[in-house]
């Protein structure tokens, strides 16, 4: 079937796919502007203190070196909306890796040589970089990431837990993790003679970058253009502007030339965010039939001294399972570490690992099938808010997943199945992710030749946004999808929110749907040929998205995994994974399947390979490149299947869609961990499940 005849939801091929595989797609560090210079950032090498001197003479004497920017000569900026953007403005070193200088040269090699030639001295101060569950600096913040209250209590948890016939009391420890997109954070910046700043930035939201730069440089938004045409991954780390954007603009202003700055990968762990480590104390009280009576999820995490960011890991426990008595708490301490930030389903990914592991422990203690236990505690309304769910397909996902996976033929006894030295096991876990929607603007244009053009400052970070937005418009305009062109990734287009929180397509698509519907109505009122300039309709969804929904809106899913644990080496291999998701109307089956499988692969990495270790002496993360920070390779990600149920939800947006970018990772690590427990008979409460952790406990 051709794309011409395919409706919304069909597997339309991504529009930019050929450009990406042939190299025609150009990224932020591939602009090759005339007269372009190249910059190399210089990170601090002490974990805390201040810079006392930076000797630049040797660097400036090198061939091709044009400038060395430091806190003493860099352009002065206004107070930013994000403190991590206050670079080269003071001599303070809040953590190791904080950027303290920038060398600009004719070539990248020259800039790097100049950076190595700098003579830097420091005044060091004592530092504290290690999170402990009882750190003396712990405090309770007002809110966690996303604006969620840090503490929520219902009923009397202590009394109900003490009275419960069956109790689980466990603490799960997760270390820091890093995003590491294939394309590093990169910016090419140049100023026009009239003072207009143009920035090509590897970003998840050009509108946000523009507004932040306007604040930093004291400009009007219309004096800045930010272009994020193609983005090679972000996973949250490019959700807000990072220091390289400001540094490149500073250097371009200082030198009068375009400047390109691609962040060296080894520098990235210190400046582009990370998933903060957590200690998660989970307590579950239940009746003998498995009915939960009390749930507590208490989280300890860290933030930086630069700004507060609190991973909202206890929030999923407010959504998932019914109980009359509940306590969810977040506590945090500010350490001399890089600022944590969004990473791949922040909150839900680490929080659901702990909650779903604890539920598996409860199933074992009760002797109840883990799928059945989840079904028995599936609430009709959201436990925390009391709102009815707009739709809740968790039970359908669990049942369909169990059928597809062959779950019901499973021997529940642990450490029973073997193939020689291999111990085999299966595990299950649930998934959830909230529906976020933000105000967006879009325009729809009908040309005299019968074609249509959609304009919205969306960002395609590899999800296929161009394609899906064209499908939405084509479905409204009742025209073949190839008759619709889409302009995105430019802050001069109608303002739109960033690609984050799995909210992009729902938010952008709503405004595109509204603009296209307005255009269709306008055209229906006309008679005769269109004028040469065509007809344009603009729309925004500010009023619609500002209204509080009477419904609790979430996507749900179920993960099933089978593992083989080598009793000789401690190596864990995932033989197969299967996910079933309830995420509203699926807008493109091809790109959706890719998103689900990608998320599940991220969950596999979280469970088995990914780790960022904080060096307590030097104050930095030791796994700072892709040789040491291990992400799954193709050989690791075998037998992964993604399916979804046909979920109709009229309470979301005109498309009836939920976000799908992050639901795939949530719960995946727990399903693998539960499978490892089934295989070995040993419960491991710390990730990743590497051979060194498993071997001491294996026969």
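^ Assign residues to that structure.
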């Amino acid at each position: 079937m051709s794309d011409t005849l395919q409706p919304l939801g069909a597997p339309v091929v991504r529009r930019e796919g050929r450009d990406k595989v042939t190299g025609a797609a150009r990224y932020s560090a591939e602009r090759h502007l005339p007269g372009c210079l190249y910059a190399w950032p210089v990170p601090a090498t002490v974990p805390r203190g201040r810079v006392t001197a930076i000797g630049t003479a040797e660097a400036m004497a090198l061939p091709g070196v044009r400038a060395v920017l430091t806190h003493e000569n860099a352009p002065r900026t206004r107070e930013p909306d994000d403190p991590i953007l206050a670079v080269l403005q003071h001599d303070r070193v809040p953590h190791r890796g904080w950027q303290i200088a920038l060398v600009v040269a004719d070539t990248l090699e020259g800039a790097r040589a100049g950076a190595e030639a700098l003579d830097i001295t420091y005044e060091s101060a004592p530092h504290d970089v290690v999170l402990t569950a009882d750190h003396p600096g712990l405090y309770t913040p007002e809110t966690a990431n996303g604006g969620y209250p840090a503490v929520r209590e219902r009923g009397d948890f202590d009394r109900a837990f003490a009275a419960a016939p069956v109790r689980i009391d466990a603490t799960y420890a997760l270390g820091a993790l890093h995003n590491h997109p294939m394309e590093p954070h990169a910016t090419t910046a140049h100023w026009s003679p009239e003072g207009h700043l143009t920035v090509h930035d590897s970003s998840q939201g050009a509108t946000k970058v523009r507004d932040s730069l306007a604040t930093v440089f004291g400009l009007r938004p219309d004096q800045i253009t930010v272009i994020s045409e193609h983005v090679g991954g972000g996973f949250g780390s490019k959700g807000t502007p990072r220091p390289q954007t400001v540094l490149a603009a500073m250097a371009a202003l200082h030198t009068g030339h375009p400047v390109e700055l691609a962040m060296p990968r080894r520098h990235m762990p210190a400046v582009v965010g990370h998933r903060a480590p957590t200690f998660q104390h989970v307590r579950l009280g239940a009746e003998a039939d498995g009915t939960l009576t009390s749930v507590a999820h208490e989280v300890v995490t860290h933030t930086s001294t630069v700004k507060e960011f609190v991973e909202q890991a206890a929030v999923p426990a407010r959504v998932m399972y019914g109980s009359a008595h509940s306590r969810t708490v977040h506590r945090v301490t500010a350490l001399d570490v890089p600022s944590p930030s969004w990473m791949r389903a922040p909150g839900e990914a680490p929080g659901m690992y702990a909650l779903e592991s604890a539920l598996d422990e409860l199933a074992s203690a009760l002797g109840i099938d883990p799928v059945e236990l989840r079904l028995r505690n599936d609430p009709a309304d959201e436990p925390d808010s009391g709102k009815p769910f707009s739709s809740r397909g968790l039970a359908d996902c669990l049942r369909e997943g169990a059928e597809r996976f062959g779950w019901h033929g499973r021997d529940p006894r642990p450490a029973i199945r073997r193939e020689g030295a291999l111990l085999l096991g299966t595990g299950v876990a649930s998934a959830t992710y909230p529906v976020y929607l933000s105000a967006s603007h879009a325009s729809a244009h009908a040309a005299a030749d019968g074609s249509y053009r959609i304009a919205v400052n969306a960002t395609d970070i590899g999800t296929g946004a161009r394609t899906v937005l064209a499908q939405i418009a084509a479905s409204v305009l009742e025209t073949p999808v190839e008759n619709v062109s889409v302009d995105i990734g430019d802050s001069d287009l109608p303002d739109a929110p960033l690609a984050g929180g799995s909210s992009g397509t729902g938010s952008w698509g709503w405004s595109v749907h509204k603009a296209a519907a307005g255009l269709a109505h306008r055209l229906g009122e006309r008679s005769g040929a269109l004028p040469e300039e065509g007809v344009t309709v603009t729309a925004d969804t500010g009023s619609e998205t500002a209204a509080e929904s009477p419904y609790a809106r979430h996507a749900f899913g179920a993960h099933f995994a089978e593992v083989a644990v080598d009793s000789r080496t401690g190596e864990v291999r995932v033989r197969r994974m299967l996910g079933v998701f309830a995420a509203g109307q699926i807008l493109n089956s091809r790109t959706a399947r890719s998103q689900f499988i990608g998320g599940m692969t991220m969950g596999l990495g979280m469970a088995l390979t990914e780790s960022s270790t904080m060096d307590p002496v030097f104050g930095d993360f030791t796994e700072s490149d892709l040789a040491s920070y291990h992400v799954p390779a193709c050989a690791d990600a075998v037998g992964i299947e993604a399916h979804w149920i046909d979920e109709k939800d009229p309470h979301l947006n005109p498309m009836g869609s939920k976000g799908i970018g992050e639901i795939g990772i949530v719960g995946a690590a727990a399903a693998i961990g539960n499978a490892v427990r089934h295989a070995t008979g040993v419960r491991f409460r710390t990730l990743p499940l590497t051979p060194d952790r498993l071997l001491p406990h294996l026969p």
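The CA atoms of residues 504 and 698 lie 45 Å apart.
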